[in-house]
Design brief:
- It contains 18 helices and no strands.
- It is an all-alpha fold and 370 residues long.
- Among the domains are: 157 residues, Tetratricopeptide repeat domain (Serine Threonine Protein Phosphatase 5, Tetratricopeptide repeat, Alpha Horseshoe); 52 residues, no CATH class.
- Helix 5 runs antiparallel to helix 6.
- The chain is elongated, with a radius of gyration of 35 Å.
- Pfam families: TPR_16.
- This is Tetratricopeptide repeat protein.
Length: 370
């Protein structure tokens, strides 16, 4: 009487234990023994176990063959898991052409536990290949699964592509659907990521609306709405990293004789001139500031101006600190000029610290007003 083969369940459990202990060779032998038993209920499980062990041991070719054995069983659990593992081996090797069919096999099994990441992977591959329609279909399917982990990622990726293609309204709908899949308390980062993307989609929609109000520039702007649309568009574009376009919008408005005065007033709304009787044309730096605002280079201009002021103030303050001479009173008045400005104390502190480091002498208490 022939011997009865070992129990497949016991062999699989022993192989799993050996694999966890790092005995990959022995584990592979036991998994392969179960596979060789033929069409048993544990054939798919053993084939997948064999594939994982062989992959860990560096034998990728044999691992992929074991994956295909598991897939061929059509087992509803271990079949898609084996296809998933097969796809990962191709992804890891940069073999995207082979990874795609493996991910599609995962989807074809219809197991909801493995479909979302497979759909997301298919969308990414199609997107990388320049097939937006196919990528969009996979992203939409991933969102439709309702998976709280992969659905929001798919929504974010699809929305980004829609924004790039000038379709912010559809991007908003996609992102809103993605937000509904997230528990804000348990996944605050994912929620914030999509919420910011929603805000960006509204910015893009606003940019489109403001631009439509201005038209293509061949005709003069509407004197009532043109200046407002110019300001709103020019101030919104930099928020999307489109400062060059904002500069062109300001220049276009300033060149339109019908609205130039109103556009200039809006451009200068934050200049904060206290003396309404002062004609900006009489102040040499006004055109420089106006140009910097329209060009989006005001921070750079401020940095240059403060740097020059700091240098000149230090030279004056050193001469004043040395004392003596008929220019002493004049120098004193000069270094007190910034005292009434919000940034005056910072300038004073900068000089006091440099004086202490250079001469070892602290500035007088209450400098420079004492």
């Amino acid at each position: 009487m022939s011997e009865t083969p070992d129990d497949p369940a016991r062999l699989c459990e022993e192989a799993r234990r050996l694999a966890e202990d790092g005995e990959l060779g022995l584990a592979a032998q036991l998994f392969e023994q179960v596979v060789d038993l033929g069409d048993t209920p544990l054939r798919a499980q053993a084939a997948l176990g064999l594939a994982v062990v062989l992959d860990d041991a560096g034998n990728v070719t044999a691992a992929r063959a074991a994956d295909r054995t598991a897939i061929a069983t059509r087992d509803p659990e271990y079949g898609p898991r084996a296809a998933y593992h097969l796809a990962l081996t191709h992804e890891r090797a940069g073999e995207h052409g082979e990874a795609g069919p493996a991910w599609q096999m995962v989807v074809d099994f219809g197991n909801p536990a493995y479909m979302p990441p497979a759909l997301l992977a298919l969308a990414r591959l199609a997107d990388d290949g320049g097939d937006f329609d196919a990528a969009r279909g996979h992203w939409e399917e991933a969102i439709a699964t309702g998976d709280p982990e992969y659905g929001p990622v798919a929504a974010h990726d699809l929305a980004q592509r829609l924004l790039e293609r000038g379709d912010p309204a559809r991007a908003q709908r996609i992102l809103t659907a993605g937000l509904k899949l997230i528990d804000r308390e348990t996944a605050p980062y994912a929620y914030s990521r999509l919420a910011v993307a929603v805000g960006i989609s509204y910015l893009d929609q606003a940019i489109g609306a403001f631009g439509a109000a201005l038209g293509d520039g061949d005709e003069p702007a509407d004197p009532e709405i043109g200046p407002l649309a110019t300001e709103l568009l020019a101030r919104t574009l930099p928020l999307r990293g489109r400062g060059g376009e904002a500069r062109d919008i300001w220049r276009r408005g300033l060149a339109d004789t019908g609205v130039a005065g109103q556009v200039r007033a809006r451009l200068r709304r934050d200049f904060g001139a206290e003396d309404d009787e002062v004609d900006p044309a009489d102040v040499w730096w006004e055109p420089v500031m106006e140009s910097a605002v329209s060009d989006g280079s005001l921070p750079a201009l401020a940095g240059e101006a403060f740097g020059a002021l700091d240098h000149m103030y230090a030279l004056l303050a050193v001469r004043y600190a040395e004392g003596g001479g008929e220019a002493h009173e004049l120098l004193g008045r000069a270094i007190r000029v910034p005292s009434d400005y919000a940034w005056g104390p910072l300038l004073h502190e900068s000089f006091a610290e440099r004086l202490r480091l250079a001469m070892g002498t602290p500035a007088p208490p209450g400098w420079p007003d004492a």
